[in-house]
Hints:
The chain is of the alpha/beta class. It has an 8-stranded mixed beta sheet with strand order 2-3-6-7-8-9-10-11, covered by helices on one side. The protein is about 35% helix and about 10% strand.
Amino acid sequence: MSELPQIRVRKGRGAVSNQAxxxxxxxxxxxxxxWTAEEELLAASRVETQVLPDSxxxxxxxxxxxxxxxxxxxxxxxxxxxxxxxxxxRPTHAWLGLxxxxxxxxxxxxxxxxxxxxxxxxxxxxxxxxxxxxGAVTDPYQPAERELKITRRIIEVLAEAQHPFAIVTKSAGxxxxxDLLGPLGKAGLAKVCLSVTTLDRxxxxxxxPRAATPSRRLEAIRGLAAAGVPVAxxxxxxxxxxxxxxxxxxLAAAREAGATSASYIMVRLPLEIAPLFEEWxxxxxxxxxxxxxxxxxxxxxxxxxDSAWGKRMRGEGAHAEALARRxxxxxxRLGFDERxxxxxxxxxxxxxxxxxxxxxx
Length: 361
């Protein structure tokens, strides 16, 4: 019996393949027939990142899910170059006719007009302030932000309006905006939720290949806390037999760095993510694949994912309950507060119109 072809892993990329999106009528798959030179295979495996303009006319997304702690969010980018294999946002690229695999981490859509669109929303008489989540879907501090600075300009608009917000990221790039975040954090208008998935640099390199290293994330927590910005650590997602054994160590390291609240999420594998995750396991942990998938199914009612509210974040069953118990004990021992999204809305003032528009008077 011939051996199955070895899965080719692309350096710096999380997904192994570029499977067609669920709305596409046709699917395709590249196959090595044995006649292609190694140099050509290596060249073909390199996928360059493209940053494209996003033409969205609105910028605020509303949320009514009872297990999500915010009502409105803003995402400066679609797709994410960090390449986290588990990212629950991957299936959203199917709405663009693209793949949740490599397309999601190499075809990035930047919302260049986001700050101006946000200013228009906040200026409406009907607008009522509530804590705004920045980056609840894709990371607002992914590599493109270094040059585009869309997230920074969004923060500047929120600072002008004295509008409360919380940032969700796994990037140390958040420290570049410390001059804005420090005063806002001290005023009760800003907080940062920083995701720390593992303390193992080798695991992080294949799990989230272009995100900040674990040590850099802890440095970010330390820098934010020192500047007076409240920081929550998100030990998520926790993947059975991959990183869930690190839960207590992650929480302890984040607490030592200055985080004051904590939360966790069990790995979620909706839609296209499940086959992509299985490919990732086959490529990196073939000997553990069966065990990992079995534990996930035990925590999801026999399936790889259960979308029911109240279950999708935490799971159910013996393994999920043990994880929840471990989290509660560790959080209590370390003195973490409950993660809260309620910030001060009393200072809100409507901003002027588009800053690019000159006054007639």
